[in-house]
Amino acid sequence: MAKDFSRAFYSSADWERARDAALTRDAHLCQHCLQQGEITPAVMVHHIIELTPANISDPSIATDPSNLVSLCDRCHKKVHGWIRQGATRKGLAFDSDGNLIALGD
Ligand SMILES: [Zn+2]
Ligand SMILES: [Zn+2]
């Protein structure tokens, strides 16, 4: 979910390069699933230290491979804690647009 301060960054060539490099390093697989022995295609590259207006221009955070990890949609939501929000006891979660969705297993 791109916030206003990061919109320009996420369309920059620097990010494109860093994102491609991380996906290639991770073989386009979700690294969290891989730790569980599951093979799941990664759909995005996540910042381990979350981007903030203060650190977005710091290359050691914003584009450094050590701060990037390829994840699938489900693991990414988990990382951001969206699945733990309120409705999850009923098997529901919020997608990246904030819509309530059912978790199919
Ligand atoms: Zn995953
Ligand atoms: Zn993320």
TrEMBL record:
GO molecular function annotation: endonuclease activity; hydrolase activity
**Domain HNH nuclease: where?**
17-77
Concerning SMART domains, the annotation shows:
HNHc
What Gene3D superfamilies does this protein map onto? 1.10.30.50
The organism's place on the tree of life at top rank: Bacteria
> Per UniProt, which keywords does this protein have?
Endonuclease, Hydrolase, Nuclease
Family according to the record = Belongs to the HNH nuclease family.
Q: What is this protein called?
A: Putative HNH nuclease YajD
